[in-house]
Amino acid sequence: MPDVEALEIELDDDAPQFRRRLAIVVVLITLFGAGIAYLHEQNGNFEDNASREAQIASVRGFGQQLSALTDFGFDYDVFVHHELLERRVVVASARQASSANAQQAGKYGAETDRYKQLRDSIGNDTRVQDLNGADALDSQLQRDPDREQLRQQVFANKANDYGNKADSYVAVLTVLAVGLFLIGLSLTVGGRGRYFLAIPGVAVAMVCVVWAGVITLGGITKVSDNAVELTADGQQLQNSTDSVTDPQAFHDNITAAIDKYHQAINDSPDFGAAYARLSDAEFESGLSTSSGGQFQSISDPEATKRAIAAGEKAISIGEGDASLLSSIGFYHFTIGNFDRAEELSAQALESSDQFPPLIFNLGVVQVAKGDETDAARATYQRAIDLLKDKRFDVLRTLIISAAPHRPRHRRHVQE
Length: 415
What we know:
Layout: H1 15-98, H2 102-123, H3 131-186, H4 195-217, H5 225-239, H6 247-267, H7 272-285, H8 301-316, H9 322-334, H10 338-351, H11 356-369, H12 373-387, H13 393-402
Helix pairs in contact: 1-2, 1-3, 1-4, 3-4, 3-5, 5-6, 5-7, 6-7, 7-8, 7-9, 8-9, 9-10, 9-11, 10-11, 11-12
């Protein structure tokens, strides 16, 4: 009878213990994944809420803007008619004084009295009595729409932050699924080979834990309503200087505006709009008097440096408006930082290449650098061709009289 060799049976004594430990790990990872899913859903809800608040602020601001324009237009029209009636009074009085005919003199006298009565009857009912009053009223009426615009910007930034967090949590869940897949696959392999699958799976899960912690601790834009109010107050003070000719009154308003911006920044250090407007106000603080809302080119060097510091801070925390970039680029140009000026001017044109002042600013920097003559000519020609558009009839005169210039970035939408 032939000998029969007994089969060798390989026993995996470690398998039950391995499975028990792995089961605990899988449970923990699953619970962690459930927590990540909850955070994703929560941040998605926060994003929706912030987006809704941004839309509400936008609609409310639009309504207030229309109301402000209507109110200002009415009062300003009454002021214009008051001035026209004043001229009629002067003309009629002159005719009465120079008339040799008593009948004609009486007629002109009656006209004078009628124009005076009409002038006085409407003159006391308008909130605009002179050009300074017009700017003061305009800045007052624009405050509420400006506040809603700032609130819309704040909530839009919050929505973006929450959306980015929610998307990041989705990425964590995707990578975590890879870890679970490796751990599950390790259960199908015997011997030491299973550890080559389980250990990387657990390592991926640990990376996801750290990653989720970083995402959770990541900041959301925090800007209080008080900071928004202070910034809107500062803009109102700054706008009211457009027709102020008295140097002391001009600097008092600008100083008060700067103080409001600093209060807003102290309240909410991440408020980029406050830094951007502070930059504009710091530059104006170095002017001798108001430019009447026109282009401004020369400011005190120290004021310009403060404007650059505030503007660069605004850019570093996410402010990227084309007019802001161009303004900060111009500030750099005025103190000889041509490389940074060119960089910012080029960035401004990437998002807004149809506004001639921004194009001229880049051309001025290219000329100043002296090594891009052909590029400067091409840039200037591009801006000149664009100025031929009838939309820029008024702007064309301003640019000719003030280039190079620093456009007031808060006016760009209106211009």
